[in-house]
Design goal:
2 domains; alpha+beta; 15 helices; 12 strands; single chain
Length: 417
Amino acid sequence: MNTELFIARRIFSSGEESQQLSQRIIRLALLSIALGLVVMILSVAIVSGYKKEISDKVFGFGSHLQIVNFDTNQSYATEPISQNQPFLEELKNLGGIKHVQSFSTKPGLIKTDDEVQAINLKGVAADFDWEFFRENRVDGEIIDVSDSVPSKSIWISQQIASMLRLKLGDEILMFFINEKERIPRNRIFTISGIFQTGLEEFDKMFALVDMRHIQRLNNWESDEISGFEIMLDDISTIGLHEMQVRDMVVNHMVENAPILKVVNIIAKYPQMFDWLRLLDMNVWVLLSLIVVVAGFNMVSSLLVIILERTRMIGILKSLGQPDWSIRKVFLYLSGMLISRALVWGNLLGIVLCLLQQHFHIIQLDPATYYVSAVPINFSLFHLFLLNIGTIIVTILMLIVPTWFITRISPEKTVRFD
């Protein structure tokens, strides 16, 4: 039988502490722990949700991995590769690969009566996954690329449409410049869809068209493309899959064919993901401050409890109970009190997360924050770590004040009353 745990349970369940003067102090300490846990749950859920929202938008525009021509050109005027690659079937069957699609890019200029806007056309084919753009669609229909004649439809962002005062169904004139050609080429497209992701840097950069237009503008063959985009099931495996895909590409190299390279989207846009990683530092600082403050509040409460239980400590010592055994009684008692606070903190934190996640109560300005509402990414794993971390750190901080028990003399405390 665990004697220390038995005594702590009797003290915890006796209700005697409700008659003590220290009850208000204890309640304040428990309230600080509960509210601290609520803030920690919300902080982690919001920051992880924000990172996920922004990352998903970047991945929606460029996927997780890309296979492109190994040239030194850093612009969107790419060198072509063959669409018929020997590794393609093996790549699609590789575990963890969600989707593989071909793409082509071509920079150009949109010309209206009053404005000129540079933009990058992204050509899509029948294998293009429209899920991301469907989720961010403002209006319009998906581009039909199944016809033998290239579709003249184009998808532009709401930001471009507002800047150039365009609307669904309008025709837009675009100009393109090829190397070694003095006269720019032009195409007329009809706006069939408008999207808005809130990610301003990308919204004003990309528009979607039928890939065959880009192939003709670049004087490419019908089987030539800019590259392949690879979507993964789990972003955490991007490093592993990058190495696997690179090995696959190298093992299937064909003589006299263009050399291919595998591009990690995180390495392609490092400034975006470095900024997101900085948010983790803010969360760690906030979590540390909250846990330390809650721990000090609990330390003061434990000292008051020890002072009020001085007579009981003296009796236990006179019966031969070791100091460490008595200290464990108060550590068990503190753990029970902390657990009670954590229960209420978890309930309130989870309710607030679910309310924001489903009803978007707190709205944001997309122009500033890139999202229209405070994002929530609720994770049971994060919840478990926060609870375990709070208990461990707080209990470790409480070991120090229990040392005061060793200074209590049974001779004086038994006669105290």
